[in-house]
């Protein structure tokens, strides 16, 4: 039993970098996107983890579990205090942001 626990712990440590790497690379692509940096980071934070009394985290499970159509609608038409970005961003830029948000869940 003791060997099993030790082996499990070692295995978890060996696999942890794989999961962290996959997770961080997805959110890095969002935060390195110039459209995000120039239009979203002011409210959602440079790391997309949200800002107190501003925009919510874009890497939370709540946001990333939303449908792509819902996210696209929010970015395009705005919601609450978030302004609409139709006319300011192209459909392709909005689609890229939505794809990057969907792939950047942080647990």
What is the CATH class name?
Answer: Mainly Alpha
Amino- and carboxy-terminal Cα gap: 30 Å
Structural class: mainly alpha
**pLDDT < 50 runs, ≥5 residues:** 12-25
In the CATH scheme, what's the topology name? Answer: Cytochrome Bc1 Complex, Chain D, domain 2
* Number of structural domains: 1
Provide the β-strand percentage band. under 5%
By DSSP, the count of extended strands is 0
Please write out the topology.
Layout: H1 2-31, H2 34-39, H3 41-44, H4 61-64, H5 68-77, H6 91-102
Helix pairs in contact: 5-6
Summarize the structure.
With 107 residues, the protein is mostly helical. The protein has helices at residues 2-31, 34-39, 41-44, 61-64, 68-77, 91-102. It has one domain (24-102): Cytochrome Bc1 Complex, Chain D, domain 2.
General description of the model:
The chain has 6 helices and no strands. It has a single domain (24-102), classed as Cytochrome c-like domain (Cytochrome Bc1 Complex, Chain D, domain 2, Orthogonal Bundle), CATH 1.10.760. Helix 5 packs across helix 6. Residues 12-25 have low confidence and may be disordered. The protein is 62% helix and 0% strand.
Summarize this structure as a short list of keywords or feature phrases.
mainly alpha; Cytochrome Bc1 Complex, Chain D, domain 2; 107 residues
């Amino acid at each position: 039993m003791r060997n099993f626990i030790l082996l499990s712990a070692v295995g978890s440590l060996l696999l942890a970098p794989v999961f962290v790497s996959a997770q961080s690379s997805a959110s890095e692509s969002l935060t390195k996107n110039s459209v995000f940096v120039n239009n979203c980071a002011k409210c959602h934070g440079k790391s997309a983890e949200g800002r107190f009394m501003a925009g919510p985290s874009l890497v939370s499970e709540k946001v990333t579990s939303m449908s792509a159509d819902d996210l696209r609608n929010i970015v395009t038409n705005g919601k609450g205090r978030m302004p609409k970005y139709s006319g300011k961003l192209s459909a392709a830029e909005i689609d890229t942001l939505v794809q990057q948000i969907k792939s950047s869940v942080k647990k």
